[in-house]
Amino acid sequence: MDDPTPGDSHQADPARRRRLRWRSRRGLLENDLVLTRFLDAHEESLADEDVSGLHELLDLSDNELMDLILARREPEPGELSPGALHVLQGLREA
Asked: Does residue 23 surpass a pLDDT of 70?
């Protein structure tokens, strides 16, 4: 995962932003649509903590991610970082 180093942020690196959008493409069309809608609306305002949380969510399988987005299941305490929980809330609203 390409976590930013001090003084280096997601927003300052166009290549990093392109890689995040590419990584957000999913095999499950429903996930792909939600992630694309979310990034279209919020990509330019994501903080580095949010980007890290999104990467954390993207590490999940498509089915696990869809279950979380649709609130078919809630994350267990401590399962996701605060950044991932924040992004998850945004994905649920997308």
From this structure: yes
